[in-house]
Amino acid sequence: MNLRRLLLRLTGSAAIALALVAGPAVAGDPSGAPSAAVAAAPAGPAPARPSRDRMRMNQRVFDRVWSEVRSQYYDPGLHGVDWAAARRAYRPRALLAADDRALYRVLGDMLDLLDDDHAGASAPAVARRIDMVRQARPAIGVTLRADPGAPGVYVIQSVRPGSPAEAAGLEAGWRLDSAAPGAWFPELDVVEGQTVTLAVADPAGVRRTLTVTPRIMPPRPPFTADLARPGVAVLRIDAFEPGLGDWMGGQLAALPADTDIVLDLRGNPGGRLIEADAVLSCFLPRDLAWATRTTRSGRTIVLRTAGGCGDLEGPAPHDVAVLVDADSRSAAELTPAALQEAGRALVVGENTAGAVLISQDTRLPDGGRLSLSRSDFVTAAGVRLEKRGVTPDLTAPAPKGEAPGQDPALDLAVAALAGARQVRAAAAPSL
What we know:
With 431 residues, the chain is α+β, with helices and mostly antiparallel strands.
C-alpha cells in the first residue's frame, strides 16, 4: 500500500481526530473565462502630458509587451482575445502615462484580458527588488500580494521579524492602499534611510497611516530546516531557486531513515522547473514521467525525473507530507501534484492557487520585466491544474492570527505521518 493511501485510511484514527481540520478553501476567481471582446479602456481625468522622452520610452515598452504576447504566448489564439483591438484600446493610454505606476497599470489591465496569473509586467523598481532578493538591500520588511478585486490594494502576507515594518506595528493580514494620496506604492524604489508613508487598514477596517524608514537587511535564506520536533524534519522552501536540489539532498542524507519529512511550500511562488524536478527526484524513481508540457506549436514534451537531488543515488526512504496554501503557485503546485499522484506524499493545507502554466521572463527596455506563459501543462494523470489547483488530501488553515508557535496545518501533517508509522509498526509480524 502506498503512503498516501495508508495515510488517507487513518483520517478517522485517534491521531488525526486530535488535529484541527478546516473546510476546503477555494482559490481563484469563480467568474469564469474572459470575454473575447475588448471593451474600451476606462477613461479617467486627462493627465498632464508627459515629456517626449517619457512618451518614447512608454511606446517602446508597450510595443515590446504587445508584440511578445502576440508572437510568444503559449496559446496562439490568445484565449479568444482580439489582440489588435487591445492595442488600439490600451496603447494611447500607455503613451500618456506620466510615470511607471501609470504605465504598468495600463500594461496590467491589458494583460489581464488573457485571464492568466502568469502574464504580468513588473515595473523597474519591482524588477530590481526581485533581482536583489538574495542580497543585503534596503527593506521595509513586508511581503505583499496584490488583491485582484481591488486595484492598488495589497494584502500583507508576512512581516519580517526585526524589520522596520515590525517596529512600526504592521501585521500580516493588513491591507496596504498604494493609491492613497502621498502613500508609498510598489513601483517606487525603497531607499535606505528615506522614510515612506504607508496607508494601511487592519482586518476590522480601521485605517492607519504609518511611517517606516527602510534600512539595510541581510537576505533571508531561501531554504531552511527545522528539526525542533523529535523524529520530524520540516523543510521550508520559500522558492524553487538554484541550489535547491543539492540542499535537499544534503538534508535528507543527514537524516535517519525513520525521520518524517514535511515539505513546507506555503506562500511559495514557484521558480525554476529544473529545481522542481530535483525535489521530485529526491522521492521518486529516476526517469518517472510526472508531467507533460505543450508548447505554442503544439509540440508535447514529457517531463521525467532526471536526478539532481544532491549526492543521493536513489529516492529517499522517508515518509513525506507537503504543506500548501492558496499562495502556493506554479512549481509549488507541480511538485505536490506529482508526489500526490505517485502516492508518495500526503498533501495538507488549502487548495493551491491554480497558476501552473510554464512561464519565462523577458527584460523590457526600461528595465522592467514581462512574465509570460510559454507552455501549457498537465500532470502525469492528465490533470490540468491551471485555474484548478491542487486539492489537499487533508484540509487545514494556514496560520493566520494564531498565537506564536501555533500551526494547525503543520500539526495535522505531523499527526498524519505519526499515525502511518504506528499502523505499520502494529502490522509488522512478530517473531
